[in-house]
Amino acid sequence: xxxxxxxxxxxxxxxxxxxxxxxxxxxxxxxxxxxxxxxxxxxxxxxxxxxxxxxxxxxxxxxxxxxxxxxxxxxxxxxxxxxxxxxxxxxxxxxxxxxxxxxxxxxxxxxxxxxxxxxxxxxxxxxxxxxxxxxxxxxxxxxxxxxxxxxxxxxxxxxxxxxxxxxxxxxxxxxxxxxxxxxxxxxxxxxxxxxxxxxxxxxxxxxxxxxxxxxxxxxxxxxxxxxxxxxxxxxxxxxxx
Length: 241
Fold this sequence. Notes:
The chain contains eleven helices and five strands. By secondary structure, the protein is α+β, with helices and mostly antiparallel strands.
């Protein structure tokens, strides 16, 4: 990836300042990404200690669905990028079938486009990943990569602003941004409820939610909503609803 692009960073900050006030929380960040980068969509996913991966925000429903499917499947380019601390490029979505079979199985057939996953990290602190999407297959050129890497750096700095760099869990590091994600809170609540229902650690309860969602073609957030609303209950045997 190319080096730091101050012009791209300045354009990003300018775009962030003029995002509609109707857009709140971390969604402002991804909307600004779409405004200044050579992509059509953007999303951010974060890792949560003792739980797993969760969607922080997305620019639209298509990006949101892709992130949700990565979280549900527990695999994908974004998760690989965040775990390894390296950029992962999917030049053509048709290629995911070989690298991430569970994600591919959850996606609708005939998906096209490209995904560029850039880890959000500062030193030892790894927040998650910025996923950028193009509607057509292909690579970003050198100038586009420089802008994307610089914006990812700015996104990391914004998410870390005024927070403790020693914190190990995303919900503490992200502060105000984290509190703006009601879906995330619902997944936390559902994981806790299932942990009590099954008498297992929260991480195991989260995995049970993932498995239930994947087996039935739902996203993790959809299953969590059913648990919190008490439309779905987990027990030693088959789930009841």
